[in-house]
TrEMBL record, chain A:
SUPFAM superfamilies: Radical SAM enzymes, RuvA domain 2-like
Species this chain originates from: Euzebyella saccharophila
Keyword field contains Zinc: no
InterPro entries reported in the protein's UniProt record: Aldolase_TIM, DNA_rSAM_put, Endo/Exo/Phosphatase_dom_1, rSAM, rSAM_sf, RuvA_2-like
PANTHER family cross-referenced by the UniProt entry: ENDONUCLEASE/EXONUCLEASE/PHOSPHATASE FAMILY DOMAIN-CONTAINING PROTEIN 1, TYPE II SECRETION SYSTEM PROTEIN K
Protein name: DNA modification/repair radical SAM protein
Alphabetically ordered keywords of this record: Iron, Iron-sulfur, Metal-binding, S-adenosyl-L-methionine
Names of the cofactor(s): [4Fe-4S] cluster
UniProtKB/TrEMBL annotation, chain B:
Pfam families, per the entry: DUF4130
Residue ranges constituting the DUF4130 domain according to the UniProt record: 86-253
Origin: domain of life: Bacteria
Protein's UniProt name: TIGR03915 family putative DNA repair protein
Lineage, top ranks: Bacteria, Pseudomonadati, Bacteroidota, Flavobacteriia, Flavobacteriales
InterPro entries: DNA_repair_put, DUF4130
């Protein structure tokens, strides 16, 4: 193959794919068969990190950036004046294999602009995955984009080769979608999602009876929403995320702060700040919902439609619900321990183990690795010294902020200046 | 006079376990356990050189494993940290495990347990880093070769990962600091020592050892890495936290900066 030509294509088609933030390569269970190449079991590996600090674990490219649609938020949109390119199927296969053999990547994440029509495009994605599995005996990770509007037959086939499938909903609300992608139907997005969900359910059921049932998308499906392109609230975003988790059994929902790529009256201007802090708060919320036993309504509701920017959502919740505190760490159950600000799930686990041996005091808790500068206002332990002033929530917040240096501090104070 | 001894062993994990066996078996009061290449005689204690015996080592291994599976894993990982005084820390931990008093690897409120688990964790982190940062380069002999320089002695820990992933290619991972490597010949992994004529790190100079296409692929990977960057999100501090600078010379995507 001609390296110069490939390099040019790779530059164009990797550049266009980078706005998809999903980098997960975990959650699959493909072992190396018949002394072939690769596996994807357990945790995925980040082989490198971009200069903006995101994990690089997959070769993330588009098959082509020709597209018949004109979605306002997308660099690849038809009306954008950019260089276009398209990979041949074999070229993607060769790149993947050669990168994989050098331990650069965990596998391939293949997406595409929509060329001709949805099925034509999906067919080519499936062809790459099929070649990798059947001709190269490749057992590494494959993530394929489900092209909105692709037929059920193709989605069925895609799941036989891919570990994960994803359709990016991109705009969190149906009204926003109408505004920014007027020629796309909401149903075009949900149809492949529904098919994949049903196939996974069916696979799991059949697998119980017939062990040799071929795998179907073992790492499940995911989706992405862009944040801050339209005027949606955090409540809109998280309720919508909850909807996809629940109704389509999403493994992950990704939130991607909108990076302006076009001058368009409907969107923030080029050069506007990417809402990184907001993105971070949404991920924290997502985490609380999935692992900490919070219900979305506890964190976001009609009274609190947007997350606090100055404190994380768990601390925010605690400050609004002081009647649950202080919690006795030597007695409280797992669920309540998990709600103490400054205590993560790992610490919860360590506390539960360690307190079997002795009552825990501040020293023990510090060794376990708890952020006491936050936690101390919300808990008591085996010590007569504890925060016994009857502090107002606002005062606690002030004290905590004084003594912390979150990674977004600087940016937060910049953004505050913008608002003041 | 207290009759305490320094036990001297060959530096291997089996050697260390043999020393532990000796200490228990002969009821020695141990004042220190030292590698033979770092042995310093103590003024008031005599020393005994322990000959590595894999049978004795095995008995200690299984003995600990029976008490706790987590403990034996942590002890092995912590040992590979090669940190100063690691032997005595682990010896005390093992004694605790076998004594009547409670000692559980999940009792983080105990100092020795905590220290061991922290060391084990650092070694575990380095293991993961190496699984991520190994960069194979294809030699003209058809071997995928990587040189590494890990903070801890993690080669024994990463062998399995690479064996099960790259089952259909010849590969060799060489620890430059400790001067030994792992070689996989499509059937098994062997420990090899060799005289490396040149380090294959990032440099302008192209090595004769590697295939021509190798440099093309490094170039493609380098390019790919650059185009994944989103300028408006740049955060170099976070980047360096994830990819510490000391590893850069082995990462082809970092070629230009080095
Ligand atoms: S269909 Fe996809 S690739 Fe095409 S413009 Fe819309 S979002 Fe971009």
């Amino acid at each position: 193959m001609s390296f110069e030509r490939i390099k040019e294509k790779l530059n164009i088609l990797a550049d266009a794919a980078k706005y998809d933030v999903s980098c997960a390569s975990s959650g699959s269970n493909r072992t190396n068969k018949n002394k072939g190449l690769g596996n994807s079991t357990g945790m995925g590996i980040c082989h490198s990190y971009t200069e903006d600090g995101r994990c690089v674990s997959l070769l993330k490219i588009l098959m082509t950036n020709y597209c018949i649609y004109d979605c306002a938020y997308c660099v690849t949109r038809k009306s954008n004046d950019i260089k276009r390119a398209a990979f041949k199927i074999q070229e993607v296969v060769d790149l993947t294999i050669n990168f994989y053999r050098r331990n650069y990547i965990e596998g391939l994440f293949l997406s595409s602009g929509i060329f001709k029509n949805a099925d034509y495009t999906m067919e080519r994605l499936v062809a790459v995955a099929k070649k990798l599995r059947e001709e190269e005996n490749f057992n590494g990770y494959i993530h394929l984009k489900s092209i909105p509007g692709a037929s059920d037959e193709l989605m069925r086939e895609a799941g036989l080769y891919a570990d994960r499938l994803s359709v990016n909903i991109e705009v969190p609300t149906v009204s926003g979608l109408k505004l920014l992608a007027p020629d796309k139907n909401y149903e075009d997005f949900t149809k492949p999602m529904l098919k994949v969900k049903n196939e996974i359910i069916q696979y799991k059921a059949e697998k119980k009876i017939i062990k040799s049932t071929p795998k179907y998308a073992p790492a499940g499906q995911s989706t992405q929403m862009i944040i801050g392109a339209t005027g949606e609230s955090d409540k809109d975003i998280m309720y919508s995320a909850t909807h996809y988790y629940k109704n389509y059994h999403m493994k992950r929902v990704y939130y991607s702060g909108y990076v302006p790529v076009a001058e368009d009256k409907r969107l923030p201007a080029i050069g506007s700040q990417v809402p990184l802090l907001r993105e971070n708060r949404l991920y924290q919320t997502d985490w609380l919902l999935r692992f900490y036993g919070f219900h979305v309504k506890e964190i976001l509701n009609a009274d609190f439609p947007n997350l606090d920017m100055d404190v994380d959502p768990k601390l925010g919740w605690a400050l609004r619900n002081m009647h649950h505190f202080p919690v006795d760490v030597n007695r409280a159950d797992r669920a309540m321990l998990a709600r103490i600000p400054g205590i993560g799930m790992q610490s919860v686990h360590k506390i539960i183990n360690a307190r079997k041996f002795r009552k825990l005091n501040w020293e023990h808790l510090k060794n376990i690795g708890i952020a006491l500068n936050r936690a101390k206002y919300f808990m008591v332990c085996d010590s007569s010294k504890w925060e016994n002033r009857d502090l107002e929530p606002d005062r606690i917040k002030g004290l905590i902020l004084q003594n912390s240096s979150g990674k977004f501090r600087k940016e937060y104070s910049n953004q505050l200046q913008l608002f003041s | 006079m207290i009759n305490s001894k320094i036990l001297v062993y060959d530096g291997s994990f089996n050697g260390f376990l043999t020393a532990v066996f000796t200490a228990f078996d002969e009821k020695v009061s141990v004042s220190d356990i030292q590698r033979e290449d770092e042995y310093q005689s103590g003024l008031f204690s005599e020393s005994e050189t322990v000959i590595t015996d894999s049978e004795k080592a095995k008995r200690v291994w299984y003995g600990i494993d029976k008490k706790s599976h987590t403990a034996i894993k942590q002890i092995y990982f912590a040992f590979l940290s090669e940190s100063r005084g690691i032997e005595m820390l682990l010896y005390r931990y093992i004694r605790k495990l076998f004594s009547k008093q409670d000692a559980s690897p999940s009792d983080y409120s105990d100092g020795i347990v905590l220290k061991t688990s922290q060391l084990a964790k650092s070694v575990g982190r380095e293991k993961h880093r190496m699984e991520a940062f190994v960069r194979f380069q294809l030699t003209k002999d058809g071997i995928y070769f990587a040189n590494i320089e890990p903070d801890f002695n993690v080669l024994p820990l990463i062998s399995k990962h690479f064996r099960s992933r790259y089952a259909d290619q010849y590969w060799l991972i060489y620890d430059v600091k400790r001067k030994y490597g792992l070689y996989y010949d499509l059937k098994k992994v062997e420990i090899v020592t060799m005289d490396l004529k040149e380090l294959l790190t990032n440099s302008i100079h192209k090595s004769e050892t590697l295939t021509a296409a190798e440099y093309d692929f490094q170039d493609l990977w380098n390019n790919y890495f650059k185009s994944t960057n989103i300028k408006s999100r740049i955060n170099l501090k976070l980047h360096q936290q994830h990819v510490p600078k000391r590893y850069w010379k082995y990462l082809s995507e970092k070629r230009e900066v080095v």
